[in-house]
Amino acid sequence: MSDIEDDTEISFSVKFLDRVEVLRSDGMQILTEATAAVQNPDREISEKAKKKKTKVHLFLSRSAIDILEHKTKFMLYTCPLSSVSFCAVHQTQPKLFGFISRHPALDTYHCYIFQSRKFAHLLVSVIGDAFRASQQNSGLRGSRDLVVEALRHKVRPFSDL
After folding, report:
1. What is the β-pairing status of strands 84-89 and 147-149?
2. Contact 72, 128 (CB under 8 A)
3. Helix intervals (H) in the chain
4. Quick one: which of 154, 91, 96, 95 has its CA closest to 126?
5. Which residues make Cβ contacts (< 8 Å) with residue 48, sequence separation at least 6?
6. Which PANTHER family does the record match to this protein (predicted)?
7. Residues 130, 53: Cα–Cα separation, whole Å
8. Among 12, 115, 123, 102, CA closest to 59
């Protein structure tokens, strides 16, 4: 990794609740429905998985959002920023946030849902900043907008980090 790359990457430790296939690419309703599906006790997952939320590193760069397992640093998922269409904090559960991304090979969308006690709003803002920085670097500025909702905290632009 070069020094330039070091200045354009950031990671946060958060709890990864799950990834849910969704029908549309954006909207608070989609995030709310995906969160409800994850929290549904009738969902067919093991008891161990129900009890434990996976701690992960949410790794942001100007090109992608990577989700790495906390202890092993094993890559669970990678989402190019160009595939991310929506990012928000849950309206009634402010510790929860998520983003929607298009699958790179299939015509499907997934909502990635996380929990952070202190930094949910900040992370949504940083993801939005990373998206804007990605657009500036690729020369596609203004061609597509990321929908970022529920921003309450102002942070330095991602390019200043």
Report:
1. parallel
2. no
3. 3-6, 28-39, 47-51, 120-138
4. 154
5. none
6. PHOSPHOTYROSINE INTERACTION DOMAIN-CONTAINING FAMILY MEMBER, PTB DOMAIN-CONTAINING ENGULFMENT ADAPTER PROTEIN 1
7. 26
8. 12
Assigned token pair, 79 = 């989402």
**Strands of the sheet with 54-60, listed across from one edge:** 75-80, 64-69, 54-60, 10-22, 109-115, 96-102, 84-89, 147-149
Rounded to whole angstroms, how far apart are CA atoms 105 and 160?
33
3-state secondary structure of 72: coil
Q: The tokens of 95 are what?
A: 């510790």
**pLDDT by residue, tens only, the chain of 161 residues:** 333 445 567 889 999 999 999 988 888 999 999 999 998 866 665 444 454 678 999 998 888 999 999 999 999 999 998 889 899 999 999 999 999 999 888 889 999 999 999 889 999 988 888 877 777 766 654 445 555 554 433 333 444 43
Spatial separation of the C-alpha atoms in residues 45 and 3, rounded to whole Å: 43
Domains recognised in the chain with CATH numbers? 3-160 (2.30.29.30)
pTM for this entry: 0.77
